[in-house]
Amino acid sequence: MFDLGTSFMASVARDPDALAIVDADVRLSYAQWLARISSLVAAFDGMSLKAGEHLVTVLQNRWEAATLHWACQFAGLTIVPINWRAKADEIDFVIENCGARAIAFEAVAGPAIRESRLASSIPRITVGADAGQAELSFTEMVAEPAATAVPRVAADAWSLMLYTSGTTAKPKGVPRRHRAERMAGLAHVAQNLYANGERTLGVMPLYHTMGVRSLIAMSLIGGVFVCQPRFDVGQALALIEAEAITNLYLVPTLYHDVVHHPLFARTDVTSVRKLGFAGAPMTDGLLRKLTEAFSPELFVNHYGSSEIYTFTINQKAARKPGCAGKAGLNQLIRVVKLGAASAHELAVAGEEGEIVALAASDEAFEGYWKRPEADAKSLRDGWYFTGDTGYFDGDGDLYVSGRVDDMIITGGENVSPVEIESCLSLHPGVSEVAVVGLPDERWGKIVVAFVQRAGPVSADELDQHCKAAGLANFKRPRRFEFVKAIPKSPVGKLLRRELVAGAYEREQPATAG
């Protein structure tokens, strides 16, 4: 298989003059982009960086971040992109954990870099204006002409390392090889039916597997990666219209914000023909709203992870709401009994259990970075234990019901938050909803729904809605909390743990008028 540097060279050979990347006033063809990438590779040589070494980036989704990504692939460096909101101690952890030999950052991360104990011990590359505190300038590095870069590593070399977000423990490094990255990109193209010259909104962070996949997928088809450094709904809508975006690949939260924005009705989104989502389940209500708003030719529910990019694919997401579909092109999936020690303790159809994926997938990682205890927990019998709960229906389609840790056990019954959230999302008075289990002396835990309202609605009305929808009595929320906002991560994932911890702001309950 091609390494990613060779893959990019092949893209340049096919479509040298095709537009490759857009970022405000920056518009580069594939040939022009390769010239900038080549200059960076030469600059890496001047820094004495060697193949196999790690370069950390603390950047938003700007063209410089994408260029650094590709330059690392040519040079054989392992790029380690982290959240641009990272604090000094988080940056120090990553630098020390991966043994970084250089770091690139922009102004927004400047204060954290200055407070970092370790950033000053390695070469620092400043990106954009006013970043300061760096020995090297990205602008100067790419301005120096250089011979066209030649790929230096094979497909089995390390490409990048993503860090999973930690909750109670430190984040885990997920190293991935060139071959796994490229195969995941190829599968993404095939499973989303991307055509030559597609245009995607590059807003999912390049420190997140969805962002990286969009970047690689566009390169494989002579497509355009339209950068949006950080998500802003108005700007996203403007870019969709101005750049004639053809496909969107976002987490459900961002879709929610787009279709509920006042400017949406006045924005021409007819160029968007393909929708894809991942990162979290999508409620039935939002699926319906998006289908009405975009009338997409393809609506894909992609279920996967940083560790193994694709688990399952449902290319007709709106026709079977909540369904994650069947295994992707490079995967086999099982559901095992909850608490199973082995991947061979299979659950029967309709029985909720833990979802496991074959670790031999061409898209898979091979284990966490310096975390043997995490490997022992997640990698067993040649299968990856996802930590997600779900079940197969009678058609053999997978439904993801939540996380093993999120399962609510109330009065001895297992309750999945996702089912209740989808039910409540269909009420017109609900804008967003999250369901968690809170401690209760009698029941162990009770089901509590946190609701951000779209209009006047009371707890009694929502309870009647659940009852009318056929939700079992033990699944119906025993309490409704009306909140100003549902807490989410920087990439839009619901943070249930913050609700459990009480980290939310109440809104005074309103009655239906």
Automatic annotation (TrEMBL):
GO molecular function, one term: medium-chain fatty acid-CoA ligase activity
Residue ranges that the Swiss-Prot or TrEMBL entry lists as coiled coil: none
GO term, biological process aspect, one: fatty acid metabolic process
KW Mitochondrion (keyword) present: no
Top-level lineage group: Bacteria
Residue stretches making up the AMP-binding enzyme C-terminal domain: 419-493
Presence of the UniProt keyword Transmembrane in the record: no
Segments forming domain AMP-dependent synthetase/ligase: 10-369
Keyword terms, alphabetized: Ligase
SUPFAM superfamilies: Acetyl-CoA synthetase-like (SSF56801)
Gene3D superfamilies reported in the protein's UniProt record: 3.30.300.30, N-terminal domain of ligase-like
Pfam family, one: AMP-binding_C
UniProt similarity note: Belongs to the ATP-dependent AMP-binding enzyme family.
Protein name: 4-chlorobenzoate--CoA ligase
Organism: Bosea vaviloviae
Taxonomic lineage from the root: Bacteria, Pseudomonadati, Pseudomonadota, Alphaproteobacteria, Hyphomicrobiales
